[in-house]
Amino acid sequence: MSKRRETRNLISLNRSPLARKIIIFNLLAMVVLVAGVLYLNPFRDSLVVQRENAIVVEAELVADVFEARLPKTAPVNLAAGDGIDVVDTLSGIQLPSGSSLYVFDAAGNLLISSDDVVTAPPADVTGGHDDTRSTLLTDLLSRGWGWASSLIHGDEEGAKVSTQVIAQDLNAELRPGVTRMDTRRDTSGATIFSVATGIYQGDRIVGSIALTSAAGEIDHLVRVEREQVLQMFVIAIIVSIGLSLVLASTIANPISDLAAAAEIGGERHARKVSPARVRIPDLSARPDEIGRLSGALRGMVTALYDRIDANEQFAADVSHEIKNPLASLRSAVASLRMVKKEEHREKLLDVIDHDVRRLDRLVSDISNASRLDSELVKEEEEPFDLIHMVDNLAQYLGDQAKQKGVDFIIDLPADPIVINGLEGRLAQVFVNLISNAISFSEEGDAVRVWARRRDHRVLVVVEDTGPGIPEEALSKVFKRFYSQRPEGQFGDHSGLGLAISKQIVEAHGGVIWAENIRPTDADVTSEPLGARFVVGLPF
């Protein structure tokens, strides 16, 4: 199982552009960092400064050795060997391995060099250790870096000449009281440090020496250091790739799983592939954006399936509601062909007219209900005075109540209450509630519309003194197509009004509920004195 999961992860990473980007960007950052270290090369600069200072000190010490062997007062001619044995003095000097010492007379002529005599054994500057630590990989990397460096910088300034020519050139530029220092490359391209300084008898210069370092000693040290950096670079690359793979697996794989689940849900024949619902992986336990994304996708899918279920139920309810008037129409039309009496024909025509108007009303309400969600999203909310809107509606509908012999009472605050919403849609809610209250009221009953502030909400209440709402219907009145009307009003309503009202109110962040008005709240078994619908809206 573990091997199968690892194989799956590797396959996912191989196919994942995101995983490849993570690895490439991490490697690029590492390459830029190492290239910057090698490009700046502070280690080499430090070594160069130290070696230059050291070789100057070495040259001055050698000059002091020659000066110590000179006579104090007798005239000296190094070329003739007056006062000092140059060969003997030179053979007694211990030079660093690979260094060369050249002795010149006062006229600048080369007298002898350390290559011509046997000097003291060279000092072991390595301490017995071999600094040549390299591998095939680091050799290749070092050569690659040298090639890239030569492209960027080109050859360093200075002609590639022998150490003897370097010494002679430097000695030719020597002035009394001045020590000359120069850094060049020899014929093989290795870096050589050279110093020229005078040999003095008192204040008179009687000759000079030129000391050159071993060819490429700094280059060797820098190469060793560079190889160590490159070795660490290889290790860092391996670690970076490993961490990138882990990071990619924790990011790319979950996102890939989420995308695959979403793609299955969007396929044309997804139902044929899997009859079950699409399952989004539950990664909500992760405390990061992927966990949030998983939770959001799961919530979205749940809401989508709830909407699909609601639409399917809505379609079934529509089919059921349309079948009733259609069956009545079919029966009336069939009977109309057989009825001979005119009075019976008139009754059947009245039934047909009633059912046609019922169908028309039902289709219109269904159309409005089906478009409501999209229209609520598209329409822009604006601030408006809720009290002014309810008062205008109450004034208009109050005339209908009075024509029916129903008392209409308006009890609204004098101060405006401004809310943010869709005025036309909320007006549709209150028209429906007030019209329902009037339709359930008989002559002598009363309808009351009042509003009050409650903290950060405003409550608008529509009450009537009609028969009230049956207890078993209190939980159903806001369902689609539910309608319980007096006998004379059968078929005049589709049963969608309260369902649409609830949808509009909830879209505004409000609540709506229905309850019966009783003599006392404690006595729930008493006959209701009427019905009350309450709408609570935030402001």
TrEMBL record:
Bilayer-crossing regions: 21-40
Keywords, sorted A to Z: Kinase, Membrane, Phosphoprotein, Transferase, Transmembrane, Transmembrane helix, Two-component regulatory system
Xref: SMART domains: HATPase_c, HisKA
Catalyses which reaction(s): ATP + protein L-histidine = ADP + protein N-phospho-L-histidine
Annotated GO MF terms: kinase activity
Superkingdom, natural source: Bacteria
EC class name: transferase
Keyword Iron set for record: no
Chief localisation class: membrane
Residue ranges of every copy of the HAMP domain listed in the record: 278-309
Name of the molecule in the record: histidine kinase
Species of the source: Thioclava kandeliae
